[in-house]
Amino acid sequence: MPIKVLATDVVSKIAAGEVVERPASVVKELVENSLDAAATQIAVEAQGGGVELIKVSDNGVGIPASELDLAFHRYATSKINNLNDLEKISSLGFRGEALPSIAAVAEVEIFTQTSSETVGSYMCLRNGEVVRNESRARSQGTTVTVHRLFRYFPARLKFLKSANTENSHIAHLVSQYALAFPEVRFSLVLDKRVSLQTTGNADLREVVSKIHGLELAQRMLKVEQKDGLAKVSGLTSPPSLARSNRNYLTFFVNRRWVHTPLLTRAAEEAYHGLLMDGQHPIVVINVSVPPQQLDVNIHPAKAQIKFCQDQPVFTVVREAIDKALGKTSIATQKTVPFSGGSGQWQSPRMIMDNEPVFAVSQLPTIELPLLRVLGQLANTYIIAEGPDGLYLIDQHAAHERILYDRILAQWSQKTVEIQGLLQPITMEFSPREEETLRTSKESLAEFGFAIEPFGNRSHLVRAIPALMAGANVIEIITALLDSLASKESLTPWEEKIAESLACHGAVRAGQQLTNEEMRELTKQLEQTKQPRACPHGRPTMIHLSSHQLEKEFGRIS
After folding, report:
1. 336-557 sits in which CATH class?
2. Are both 204-330 and 336-557 of the same fold?
3. Other CB atoms within 10 Å distance of the CB of residue 532
4. For residue 522, which of 47, 277, 511, 539 sits 20 to 30 Å off, Cα-Cα?
């Protein structure tokens, strides 16, 4: 076909297809407009999954009557003036595409008034064309009502899900903006049922309570950190509070709700070693950076952003969550008194009274009580008694945690003990391993490895960390190089090395231990910072509470 300029109606439908993917997209654009208009109250209503009706009302600054018609022209906006403004966008919207795109695929009514006007303005549009424009009285603010979404773009209807599914998308979206703006009073009505209502008192924890429940909100940890580039604030969950998917990871950048792998990785790296595989934290974090440090114009729906400096932002977010997690034991610990003189437990209190028998992921990460070793099961698990019931300890995972903490402590204090080898070990590396060794040689040396070239791709291992004496040196070094070469994880190199050394240096499952060895291992585990999980996040123990034992044996109902 010959090159030609597309017709206006085709262009408008293409633009609408970029902005309005589903009913929740309409709600997003209208809510963002309300927030940009400095609204402190926003009411959202939807019917039929948002296809029949979407109505967003606010008490914002309103639109002057003289500008109302212009608001429905493409690229007409009050939020930027020139090209320089694109480099420092501080508003949620800025393209001037939302209202005309919505009007191109639905019937739209808008009713608005500013504080300086004595009467408001009402406008009705069909297929993007104004069919009514008149004056009506109302209080300051704006109400936009969207009827029969996709009436003028019916092909899009077949891609929508059920009304309940579309309602859930709307509810999720409004919830996110309620979390981003706790000082704004939000209400959401879906099919004439109140789904969400916040107070707008600026208390983020209270909004979390409205969305996720009071118990979860009370257990969340406050996050607050600031450096020269970014400020991080919000709430994050203790390790004992986790979910099986990433749906509870919520991030805002300058209070814009975004999906960014960078921040997701930063949060999950902070929990590295604290959660089991497949478990994810609950995070509500806002990152504030200077607008000129962001590019918010890389996605049609503005759902993604790009930082000018990724690494500093990653670091400050991870450190902020690390700092919050450092207070975990303070937030969750319950004291279990013990009389050391008599050797008897006094008034034991359950750590988690209603805990399921094997709900390992729900165990709070706290200091262990003093444990009395009873024996070994299957040469793999140490059986111990505590003031609050029975503990089954995985000897390999527990020893991993002990070694990991000890290795990192020695490294940070520069007191790593080195074991020289009487007979050097010869190793031949692949090109990739050799390159990794070349770039990581100094790091490995800090942990006690002395490795030197010996011919073409061959090397001599002359010393290893003393803690690794007796272990398979070739296996350890090969695993270390693989870990250090991985680009998928942003775990600091020192933690990667410590993890690998701890894993290969720990006692194995199936290894018989003496009573003295079991007692010493349990004693050392009690002294670690995170005794309930190995560095990989796997549980070190299972706790069967006294309450649960009594219940299982029918002593209590």
Report:
1. alpha beta
2. no
3. 24
4. 277
